[in-house]
Amino acid sequence: MEKNSYDFELGKIKELIKERGAGRVGLQLPEGIKRVATDIDTEISKETGAEVIISGNSCYGACDIDEKLMRNVDLLFHFGHTDTFSFKKRKPVLKEKKVFFIELRSGVDIKPAVEKAVAEIKGDTVGLVATVQHVHALKEAEILLARLGKKAVIGKSRLKYDGQVLGCEFSSAVVPCDEILFVGSGSFHPAGLALYTGKRVIAADPFTMQISIYEPEEQRKKRYLVIARALDAKTVAIIVGMKSGQFELGKAIELKRKTVEKGLNAYLITMDEISEDKLFGFKVDAFVNTACPRLVEDFTHFKKPVISIKEFEVVLGERRWEDCFVL
Ligand code: SF4
Known about the structure:
Oligomer: single chain
Number of strands: 13
Radius of gyration: 21 Å
Largest sheet: 5 strands, mixed
Number of domains: 3
Bound molecules: iron/sulfur cluster
Order of helices and strands: HEHEHEHHEHEHEEHEEHEHEHEEH
Distance between the termini: 41 Å
CATH architecture of the largest domain: 3-Layer(aba) Sandwich
Structural class: alpha/beta
Helix content: 25-40%
């Protein structure tokens, strides 16, 4: 199999398949890792004899289990995420005990990136957080930071590990600190951390060694501008995400009721994947997204405002602007 920096736990996967006598197995991988899906398929089917089916659908989080595939296999291996609190709401899925989460822990040493990030830290104390791929290495980073004169606080999390963050769950970053030091890749998590904690975020990518800064005022200003555009809306579409773990029909119906009470027109629209071309055709003035709360940021420059539930509550006059980004 292609050499890479993650632990795919193939030994554990093969053992489980044999132990359960699973004849048909599903694989679900996040976009960036899909390139190795066929290698995993080849290796496990050759050694276990199981028929492997790869999900070609998107896979953004543990909230996003491919349930159709799950119903057609004996075991489903979901890579890159931990079983989270949001997914636990989906009791019928878990009862089947068919879904196994492979966390994809990274073997890359995070210390060089953390050391490089220290030059950007202005305060004395940082909240130290990471995605699940690097969370096991946070203690080492904490010791390194202490040696370099910075105190690190690894906060308790509502997720599986202390210091772990998701794009929509930042409880481990709510600690007494001057700034946040995030270890991981991409802008999705650090942008959300800045938006929701109101703190400056230093993001250290251990793979590329790139250090990036996210200022909370900048992140919030972008959202305030979109909310302001929604203030004139007379007709609103409330999007109900159909992905497992993102389905909030009750909330959407309640929101529609409140919207109509305020004298606006409101419609409920379901979507598996929310994309600009799917929104484009609807004759409404604004969209309210009740699925993944972070999705709205992908539509900042869309011609019609796309806002979250809390942001819409500001439009309805039920929430103060400054309370939009409470965790
Ligand atoms: S940020 Fe969105 S995709 Fe990620 S776990 Fe949360 S709801 Fe799911």
